[in-house]
Amino acid sequence: MEGELNLKIGSLTIVGMGIQLVGNLTLGAKAWIEQADKVLFALADPVTAKWLKQLNTTAEALPYNMNNQRRRDTYEEMTAKILTEVRKGLNVCAVFYGHPGVFADSAHAAIKQAREEGFQAQMLPGISAEDCLFADLGVDPGKNGCQSFEATDFLIRRRKFDSTSVLILWQIAMVGNLGFYERRGHIQGLKILAEVLDKDYGADHEVIVYEAAVYYPVCLPVVERISLSKLPEAKVTEVSTLYVPPKAMTPVDRKMMVNLGINNC
Ligand SMILES: C[S@@+](CC[C@H](N)C(=O)[O-])C[C@H]1O[C@@H](n2cnc3c(N)ncnc32)[C@H](O)[C@@H]1O
Questions:
Q1: Any bridge partners for residue 61, and if so which?
Q2: What are 13's strand-pairing partners?
Q3: Ligand 1 and 242: CB distance under 6 A
Q4: Which of 127, 92, 96 is nearest to 113 (CA)?
Q5: How many domains are contained in the chain?
Q6: 119 with 195, same domain?
Q7: Which of 29, 58, 127, 128 could bond 99 through an S-S bridge, CB–CB 3.0 to 4.6 Å?
């Protein structure tokens, strides 16, 4: 194919490590890591990083500069490092934790940039925190639907949502913080988040602060059930995700059922 003939030497494959220590890695991702000329990684835990270095001795951590005022600048530095290695003509495999395309600006930016420069680039899916949540909390997005937002984005864009459907809010330890995680720095943001949610759900609505177990099966997931009013006092870390169950079932539209030829549901 004409497009493929014009591809430059060097390629980029971005894979996800999953959330749980090594056990979430797909066979496809493992194969790409093993055969890469250069492996770069952005991982949440040092144990996985060590394991990765045994799998491929070229493995090197991506720069993670926490002195930047904004996370966005750090992500740009990560993208730049990935592209530097690809431009050397190497087959690069970049490994991100979770799903590499979920809340991972630098992964998407690197793929886009590599393709624009004429390199072959692909992303393989991985197991995200949301996938773990579905399994641990017994939530099936097919039942009531599922809305997923980054917590700060949810507030500042006043995202429209449906309180009869599942609501998942990511990065709740970073509400209003465009920089890096600060212990207890999230309390004011959580107060505002609770106030906004209160309008649709009420203060007594039960929500869950969730953390998937990283060191499964040694550790269990954190499932903290609290009323919405207690959210600002909840124990929240940089890997906490908020699960807000539906408030009520939404009634069916009988007229629409007739239009669709459905007699009963
Ligand atoms: C930068 S995002 C990375 C998401 C990751 N790429 C994924 O696929 O899940 C970080 C956010 O993911 C969620 N997260 C990461 N690890 C988690 C865990 N162990 N349990 C629950 N949520 C987690 C939290 O909302 C956290 O603030």
A1: 41
A2: 93, 122
A3: no
A4: 92
A5: 2
A6: no
A7: 128
Per-residue pLDDT in tens (0 to 9) along the chain, 265 residues? 445 567 899 999 999 999 998 899 999 999 999 999 999 999 978 899 999 999 999 999 999 888 888 999 999 999 999 999 999 999 999 999 999 999 999 999 999 999 999 999 999 999 999 999 999 999 999 999 999 999 999 999 999 999 999 999 999 999 999 888 887 778 999 999 999 999 999 999 999 999 999 987 778 999 999 999 999 999 999 999 999 999 998 999 999 999 999 987 6
Whether residue 181 lies in the annotated active site: no
* Residues 68 and 161 placed together within one structural domain of the fold: no
**Within-domain flag for 98:** yes
Same domain, 118 and 190: no
Measured CA to CA, the distance from residue 172 to residue 35 in angstroms comes to: 37
Residue 154 is which amino acid?
F
In ligand 1, the atom with minimum distance to the C-alpha of 213 is: 19
Domain housing 85:
2-123
Q: Give yes or no: 97 in active site.
A: yes
CB 106 less than 6 A from any atom of ligand 1: no
| 97, 116: one domain | yes
Assess whether 75 carries a catalytic annotation.
yes
Q: How far is the CA of 263 from the centre of ligand 1 (A)?
A: 42
Distance between CA atoms of 6 and 12, rounded to whole angstroms? 16
Beta carbons within 8 Å of 163's beta carbon, 6+ residues apart:
200, 201, 246, 247, 248
Supply the DSSP symbol for 18.
B
> Strand, coil or helix: what is 155?
helix
